[in-house]
Design brief:
Layout (H helix, E strand, L loop, with lengths): L15 E3 L5 E3 H33 L14 E3 L5 E3 H14 L3 H11 L6
Antiparallel strand pairs: 1-2, 3-4
Length: 118
């Protein structure tokens, strides 16, 4: 009987098992194969979920603050994402007025559930 598996693991009593057809298998290698299988399965699920989320995002007709995604109001970034021109203009205006603390202003607007107009 062999004392090591193909990958070099020692085949002692705690690290080996016998399959139904009588072959001796290494538990360490089996665990690695199972982990690899689970990673591949998880990647497939993640890819499918990402595709569904992207389809849902493409189907949206308004931005987060409720402005319509029309041809005039929509900016397409070079990597293919949509941006609301009105929200961007409001952020730029606020930044020019109040400086780099506009993130605090945005948080305050979301808390008060206000649109992005002044």
């Amino acid at each position: 009987m062999r004392d090591r598996c193909f990958h070099g693991h020692v085949l002692h009593a705690g690290n080996r098992y016998v399959t139904r057809d009588g072959r001796v298998r290494c538990r360490a290698c089996h665990a690695t194969e199972q982990a690899r299988y689970r990673r591949r399965l998880r990647a497939k699920r993640t890819a499918a979920a990402t595709a569904v989320a992207a389809a849902n995002k493409r189907a949206r007709t308004t931005c987060t603050r409720g402005h319509d995604f029309t041809d005039i109001n929509t900016y397409w970034t070079p990597d293919g994402k949509r941006r609301c021109r009105r929200c961007h203009a409001d952020r730029v205006q606020y930044y020019r007025l109040f400086g780099p603390r506009y993130e605090q202003w945005e948080r305050a607007l979301f808390e008060k559930e206000m649109p992005c107009t002044f």
